[in-house]
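User: Sequence for Octaprenyl diphosphate synthase below. Tokens please.
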Amino acid sequence: MQNDLMDQQAIHHLIDADMQKVNEEILAQLNSSDVPLINQLGIYIIQGGGKRIRPTIALLAARAVNYQGELMPTCATFIEFIHTASLLHDDVVDESELRRGKPTANATFGNAASVLVGDFIYTRAFQLMAKLKSLKMLQIMSDATNVLAEGEVQQLMNVHDPDTTEQNYLKVIYRKTARLFEVSAQSAAVLSNASAEIELALQSYGRYVGTAFQLIDDILDYSANAVELGKNIGDDLAEGKPTLPLLHAMQHGSPNQRELIRNAILEGGKRDIIDDVLAIMAEHRSLDYAMARAKQEAQKAVDAIAILPENIYKQALISLAYLSVDRTY
Ligand code: FPP
Ligand code: MG
Ligand code: MG
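Assistant: Structure tokens for Octaprenyl diphosphate synthase:
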């Protein structure tokens, strides 16, 4: 199976026409208001790149189960809107200055504008959802978005807490990231009236890919090249956010190393201790540990969709799962 893996370009090529409709719908929605800031800030964040991974999963899943309707681009659009709104809020909460290689919307337009345009995009997502006239879609999407917010609150409570457990961390990343991936894939099954088995398979696929994706995000915060990543490195440490690599290094470190990391989490690691932390992580192979966990999740995602009919779109979903743990940005 591994031999037939597709690269990113080949995957995207399969859904080119669908994604073009998504991009058109995104622009039309952002242009719909006569309040100029909505359009300016909305275009700024949404045209600023982004991997469009959630819409990609939704569109591929729909093709994989042979969905015949016309609703998928709208569905992929509101999923990307929920994600975009959450990023606008996230960069305010995290006081982030760089995203997608550009100053964040909050750095450019200010916190108030970011939060409020985030609210516009977020509520527009639900207006689009209502157009689908599917109560089940409304249910799964509103549940997922609520859990997303819940995960962020839970994470807020873990910040500066060096006693956070790995289990707690995994629960946070399920809530804040994997859940939206889960419903992105699931939506294809729901809109196609697929069997419960197919729906569960796609849901599980999304959940595992989303978990892998966030594990990699948390690794890249320590290991990436900032220019390539388009975000600042070391933000999690600076915020005192106990992600998996840091928790692993703390658990396996010597008493002195443990103390250094505990203090970094408690106080927020000053930028000048990142090299010490990286050295501790290297000694205990903490990034390798987190990477191995991510790879396990990707494999679980692939296994979850074994029951899907064999076709090129399923192959693309499989390839995407592996690629999500093999990325540098
Ligand atoms: C990125 O995580 C952010 C999220 C996964 C979700 C953020 C969600 C909220 C702030 C809740 C508000 C939600 C809505 C729908 C309005 P990160 O900060 O770990 O990653 P980063 O490195 O990309 O910033
Ligand atoms: Mg953030
Ligand atoms: Mg955050």
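The pocket of magnesium ion (ligand 2) is lined by residues 90, 94, 96 (CB under 6 Å).
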